[in-house]
Amino acid sequence: MNAENNFAARLIDAGRLAAIARTCGLKADVSYYVNEALKELWRSRSPEEAKKIAERWVLWDAEGRPWPRMPPLHRAGTAQVPVVNRPVTPLHAIRAWFEKQDDGVQCEIAGMAALLVFEGADFLDLSSRVWCDCLRRWLSEAGLPAHTIIGRALTFRTCFEYFAESRFTESGWRRSETTALKILEDAKCDPNSEAARLAPIAEKMLDTLPARKGRWMEVRKSWRELASASLTARSLRVWSTLQTK
């Protein structure tokens, strides 16, 4: 039972590690960490026992990737919502801006939404592609009243700027670098520590930091242009007033 409990703990931890990785712009979703747990399970147990444990705790998607076994609450219906011939709303403006970002930035932004906007721990157990699709649907839902549209626009702006602030400044990137280096230093001192488990993420973060910094400085420019044009309190009041005419 200890082996099964340990394996289950690894699966629970997979969501947290993937969330950390994705908000750092790294391509390591939950299935990656589940796969690592499966490898360890097969190394430490007999094939028969490992198979029984895996069948109780893991499911495989159509692409053969392993995921924690959970109700398919958010897996179904992930098709993107087309934005065609609709009146422009503040949410459509955000969606258009979002689609102009590269895949890595989109995943980071959707990860921010998964952590705060959607308020669901289940989202942490899904892939970044599902996160992006959920955000697209949330920004594109048809038939919303004006006050709901404004509420979502303000929610997204607050959430995004809360997370993105550290990516918009030189000091923020220095803090990220210092944090990653500290994790690696602590991992060397204790290979069984929490820092040791986060060390691979920290190494990848340091490797990708210069490129991500350049991309996010461009994101800062385009976001501020969007926010100042369409998401200020005055802009939202004007838009709302026009809906009643």
Mean pLDDT: 80
What ranges have pLDDT less than 50 throughout 5 or more consecutive residues? Answer: 71-87
Number of H- or I-type helical stretches: 10
Number of strands: 2
Computed over alpha carbons, the radius of gyration is 21 Å
How much helix is in the residues? 55-70%
Structural class: mainly alpha
Strand content: under 5%
Reported for the largest beta sheet, the result is: 2 strands, antiparallel
Describe, in plain words, how this protein is organized in 3D.
By secondary structure, this protein is mostly helical. It has ten helices and two strands; from the N terminus they run αααββααααααα. The protein has helices at about 1-25, 30-45, 45-55, 90-100, 105-115, 130-140, 145-165, 170-190, 195-230, 235-245; strands spanning about 60, 65-70. A two-stranded antiparallel ribbon has the order 1-2. Strand 1 and strand 2 form a beta hairpin.
